[in-house]
Design brief:
The complex is a heterodimer. Chain A is α/β, with parallel strands linked by helices. Chain A is built from 11 helices and 13 strands. Chain A has helices at 48-55, 76-85, 101-111, 116-129, 145-157, 175-191, 203-209, 227-230, 246-255, 277-286, 301-314, and strands spanning 11-20, 23-33, 37-41, 63-68, 86-89, 163-167, 195-200, 212-217, 220-226, 237-244, 259-262, 267-271, 289-297. In chain A, helix 3 (101-111) crosses helix 4 and helix 4 (116-129) packs across helix 5 (145-157). By secondary structure, chain B is mostly helical. Chain B is 77% helix and 0% strand. In chain B, helix 4 packs across helix 10 (215-239). Chain B is globular and about 85 Å long. The two termini of chain B are 34 Å apart. Classes of the chains: A alpha/beta, B mainly alpha. At the A-B interface, helix 2, helix 3, helix 4 and helix 6 of A face helix 1, helix 4 and helix 5 of B.
Chain lengths: 315, 301
């Protein structure tokens, strides 16, 4: 996978392998993560969290190399430099006990290299941004699950990192909290141009926030690309609704050789080639039907993911 | 400097420095968090505070008595009374006072180390906080130092601060700053002994804390390290003799106090080298445990 328009990759992995005893968490993983919001998809146990720990220098790979923002996390200096440039939001509960939100974020900001004054200013900014402004002086031990997730996001943003590593950011959130979190991630990635690697097993989360996706399974990448391209392509379907002589319209579609499925009444799901809308209009006019709705129906990321996963397992 | 605006993400354009004292924010945050609960502070430091007041009064009384006795004694006629008074004053030497204070308050000085030190790693492990620390540009050594200084701070408040307060009382009450000019080595000895105490107890507290999943388990482990060998030392003494006192860090600390303050007591009678070796071994073993645990904590998260 490569970045667009010659942008250098934010993360470059070459043959990265990591084993836990007999379990291969990463199996010769080679990929380039482009700038912008990128989703790292994979079922539970696919190696996503292990990959994040290797990227942060928390785990040493058995083989292979990795470069994160141009730094090698396998070396001591590179590891510290990576952690200076990266914001990490871990998956599980992980707050500093006994501190309120301001103290927690400011402490972690100072550890990231901010001065005391800058850390405090940034702390209030990011807590406002994630919507914790009212609760900032409450002990984080009393926070709800959604507030804790937002606090974890705030601490990862306090030093304004070049790259955000988000590990399952919507875990344990109710629908409202999940939507809020996804809006924040999408805003960071799209409106503010943050480089984000979003690890998730929830495809809709990735689809809602990321421009590109990398799917891994058993520690190896099996699919990657721009989400819009993956879900378009030749196999895209077009949704059409017609009034009038529906049966003649169906016969005209069959005669024209277009694959279609009827979904009740005048609703059709057509397998039209890209730019085939004009042909559908012409067929409707000739068959005496009135086309009331015509829109492309994309293949969902879930379809793409499951198909690629099936193919990978078949191989 | 950035300006706060509601719900708008702003880029940070200020400097990001490489702090030489990267452990310091960890210490500050942990001291702040531990100090929020006032009742433990009150309970844990009440006895050392009372002891400090009592022994400070003894020191004050010594210098007050000296100021009254010496001119009268110089006048003659009350030589025997003076001699007895001088003998009593010797027992009120500042050096003896601090050593006595340490001896009496030893058990109580263990309590802050146990309460505050035992929570440092255990609470982080339980809350997963170590993940947030280790994704920052700090090393395991920074993390350890941050925690160690936290434990050392709370232990110092029970050992070093009382000793220095007693020294300060002596300095201000001694005539012509006699204590500072002639007995300054008592201050050095106080600091030295307190450092030994702080290093030993903080290291043990952090070691058991790194192994425990709960603070309560860590506290039990802490007291087990100090009091099981202590009890064994007593039992073995009754069976075999004094030599087995050396297995108790508490007796070793007492012996080290005797050596540092040059008190000349024979009890507990552990050879100085043995006492120092056992304490050094205890610290080394504790640090080894912490190092291995931190290595694992950083990796597994």
């Amino acid at each position: 996978m490569s970045g667009g328009a010659g942008d250098p990759p934010v993360i470059a992995l070459r043959g990265l392998s990591k084993r836990y005893g007999a379990v291969r968490a990463l199996d010769g993983l080679t990929l380039d993560v482009p700038p912008g919001p990128v989703g790292l998809l994979g079922p539970n146990g696919a190696g996503k969290t292990t990959l994040l720990k290797v990227l942060l220098g928390l785990l040493a790979p058995d083989r292979g190399t990795s470069l994160v923002a141009g730094c090698d996390p396998a070396t001591r200096h590179g590891r510290l430099e990576v952690r200076r440039r990266v914001g990490y939001m871990p998956e599980g509960d992980c707050l500093l006990p006994g501190l309120n939100a301001v103290e927690l974020v400011a402490t972690l900001g100072r550890l990231a290299g901010l001065t005391r004054r800058d850390a405090m200013t940034r702390t209030h900014e990011v807590l406002d941004y994630v919507g914790l402004e009212e609760a900032r002086y409450r002990s984080s031990d009393e926070y709800s699950g959604g507030m804790k997730q937002r606090l974890k996001l705030a601490q990862s943003l306090v030093h304004d990192p070049d790259l955000l590593l988000l590990d399952e950011p919507t875990n344990g959130l109710d629908p409202h909290g999940r939507r809020h979190m996804l809006e924040l991630v999408a805003d960071l990635g799209h409106a503010h141009g943050k480089n984000i690697l979003l690890c998730s097993h929830l495809l809709p989360d990735v689809e809602a926030t990321c421009r590109e996706v990398i799917a891994i399974h058993h520690g190896a990448a099996f699919a990657s690309g721009v989400i819009a391209e993956l879900t378009r392509g030749e196999e895209a379907w077009t949704r059409a609704e017609v009034d009038g002589d529906v049966e003649r319209f169906a016969a005209a579609l069959a005669e024209a050789g277009l694959e279609f499925r009827r979904s009740g009444g005048g609703r059709f799901l057509l397998h039209a080639p890209p730019g085939g809308g004009d042909e559908v209009f012409a067929l409707a006019r000739r068959s005496g039907a009135v086309l009331t709705h015509l829109a492309s129906s994309r293949v969902s990321l879930e379809d793409v993911f499951l198909r690629a996963l099936h193919e990978a397992e078949a191989d | 400097m950035a300006i706060t605006r509601l719900e708008v993400y702003r880029r940070f354009t200020g400097p990001r420095r490489r702090h030489p004292l990267r452990f310091w924010p960890i210490t500050a945050a942990n001291v702040r968090a531990a100090s929020k609960r006032k009742l433990p502070l009150l309970l844990l430091y009440a006895i050392p505070a009372i002891g400090t007041a009592i022994f400070s009064f003894f020191v004050y009384a010594k210098f007050a008595a000296e100021a009254r006795l010496l001119p009268d004694g110089a006048g003659g006629g009350l030589a025997l009374v003076d001699m007895l008074a001088q003998r009593a004053l010797q027992r009120l030497e500042v050096r003896n006072n601090i050593a006595e204070f340490n001896s009496y308050s030893q058990t109580f000085a263990l309590l802050p180390a146990a309460w505050f030190g035992s929570a440092l790693f255990a609470a982080d492990i339980r809350a997963g906080a170590h993940q947030l620390y280790f994704c920052r540009p700090i090393t395991r050594l920074d993390y350890f130092l941050g925690k160690f200084l936290t434990a050392a701070f709370f232990t110092a408040c029970a050992v070093l601060v009382p000793g220095l307060v007693i020294c300060a009382v002596a300095a201000f009450n001694s005539p012509d700053w006699y204590f500072l000019l002639e007995e300054w080595d008592v201050i050095v000895d106080t600091v030295l002994y307190s450092l030994v105490w702080i290093v030993v107890t903080s290291s043990v507290a952090l070691a058991v804390s790194s192994l425990a999943a709960r603070r309560s388990f860590a506290i039990v482990g802490f007291f087990a390290v100090f009091f099981i060998p202590h009890a064994m030392g007593r039992v073995l003494r009754s069976l075999e003799g004094y030599d087995f006192f050396a297995i108790s860090p508490i007796y070793d600390l007492r012996q080290v106090a005797i050596e540092i303050f040059d008190l000349g007591h024979s009890w507990p009678g552990i050879p100085a080298a043995t006492a120092w070796s056992v304490l050094a071994g205890t610290v080394a073993a504790s640090l080894l445990v912490v190092a291995l645990r931190l290595r694992r904590l950083e990796a597994v998260g």
